[in-house]
């Protein structure tokens, strides 16, 4: 199999970039060792011209090896992947390459509709937007050996985090605008007016390894997802595996994931304050959601409509 993707973890600046693609490949290798993979990585984050060069790289790769399948992760990778031989093309779309109103999404949808022999999407809304009835909804899975409940006090001690603070976790890269760190920060500031013990934590930062992510999740009191666009966000499923409470905007497949779960909130009008385990956590989350009802002049919106 030839895997064509523009996201793949690599040091030093992209250690978490597309880690879910790599983990999917690692799992397939473990379960089905007879399947051989070759990776063709399009380093589009480093130089946009790499997208233009990628089709020629695919063409050259498929001239020397007869692949049984070419699998493209993300729509723009599908453009390059089309220039292969006679092998079937499978395209996996992950979220913003379908749900946004951008040129990238338009190209991705066109490739998936016209060129792909098979399509995988990560939630039902994406399938509807794509308009391919034969698209398969297959969200990426979670490694339950890595992501599991751990002792909070020990996790904070190992990470050097304060034991007397209420830690609110932002699960994205603040530099990526669609992750909406501005909304997260505004909501946290409102909560801090009610509870000065609240402290924000950023999950992904330079030098933090993938192995440290479960420990960070277990050290925190709540994860807050504020993204504009998601497919099936891995951080939500990983937080659930760690028994970490979640407050999220209604994005991707999060509503279905959190439906009926104690300690997880999509609609701030539905607040359960007595099911978060440790004393005070329920009060904290109540304060968090109540404060988010208030307007945020700097953003010109009601934070409560998102949280």
What would you note in describing this structure?
The protein is α/β, with parallel strands linked by helices and 307 residues long. The chain has two domains: 2-137, Rossmann fold (3-Layer(aba) Sandwich); 152-305, Glycogen Phosphorylase B (Rossmann fold, 3-Layer(aba) Sandwich), CATH 3.40.50. It has twelve helices and 13 strands. It has helices spanning 19-31, 49-64, 75-81, 96-99, 103-114, 124-130, 152-159, 181-194, 213-219, 234-241, 254-258, 281-291, and strands at residues 2-5, 38-41, 70-73, 89-92, 118-121, 136-137, 166-170, 198-202, 222-225, 246-248, 264-265, 295-296, 301-302. The protein has a six-stranded parallel β-sheet. A five-stranded parallel β-sheet has the order 8-7-9-10-11, with helices on both faces. It is globular.
C-alpha end-to-end distance: 42 Å
Provide the residue-averaged pLDDT.
Answer: 81
Uncertain stretches: 267-284, 290-307
Total count of helical runs of at least 4 residues: 12
Strand order of the largest sheet: 2-1-3-4-5-6
Please give the CATH architecture of the largest domain: 3-Layer(aba) Sandwich
Largest sheet: number of strands, sense, barrel closure? 6 strands, parallel
Looking at the structure, what is the overall shape? globular
> In sequence order, what are the helices and strands, one letter per element?
EHEHEHEHHEHEHEHEHEHEHEHEE
**Count of separate structural domains:** 2
DSSP helix fraction: 25-40%
Strand fraction equals: 5-15%
Radius of gyration: 21 Å
Q: Which CATH class of the largest domain applies here?
A: Alpha Beta
CATH topology annotation of the largest domain: Rossmann fold
What is the CATH superfamily label of the largest domain?
Glycogen Phosphorylase B
- Secondary structural class: alpha/beta
Tell me the number of strands.
Answer: 13
């Amino acid at each position: 199999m030839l895997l064509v993707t523009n996201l793949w973890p690599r040091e030093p600046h992209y250690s978490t970039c597309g880690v879910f693609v790599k983990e999917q490949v690692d799992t397939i290798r473990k379960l089905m060792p007879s399947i051989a993979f070759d990776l063709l990585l399009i380093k589009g984050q480093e130089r946009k011209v790499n997208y233009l060069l990628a089709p020629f790289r695919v063409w050259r790769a498929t001239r020397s090896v007869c692949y049984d399948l070419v699998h493209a992760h993300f729509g723009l990778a599908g453009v390059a992947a089309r220039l292969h031989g006679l092998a079937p093309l499978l395209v996996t779309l992950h979220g913003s390459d379908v749900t946004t109103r951008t040129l990238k999404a338009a190209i991705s949808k066109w490739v998936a509709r016209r060129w792909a022999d098979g399509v995988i999407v990560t939630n039902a809304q994406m399938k509807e937007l794509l308009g391919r009835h034969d698209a398969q909804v297959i969200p990426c899975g979670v490694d339950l050996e890595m992501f599991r409940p751990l002792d909070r006090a020990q996790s904070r001690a190992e990470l050097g985090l304060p034991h007397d603070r209420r830690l609110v976790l932002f699960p994205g890269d603040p530099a990526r605008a669609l992750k909406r760190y501005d909304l997260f920060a505004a909501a946290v500031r409102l909560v801090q007016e009610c509870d000065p013990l609240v402290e924000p934590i950023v999950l992904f930062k330079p030098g933090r390894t993938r192995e440290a992510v479960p420990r960070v999740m277990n050290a925190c009191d709540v994860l807050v997802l504020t993204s504009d666009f998601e497919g099936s966000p891995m951080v939500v499923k990983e937080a659930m595996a760690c028994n970490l409470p979640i407050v999220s905007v209604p994005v991707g497949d999060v509503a279905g994931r959190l439906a009926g779960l104690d300690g997880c909130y999509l609609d701030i009008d539905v607040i359960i304050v007595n099911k978060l385990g440790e004393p005070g956590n329920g009060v904290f989350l109540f304060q968090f959601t109540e404060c988010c009802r208030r307007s945020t002049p700097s953003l010109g919106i009601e934070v409560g409509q998102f949280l």
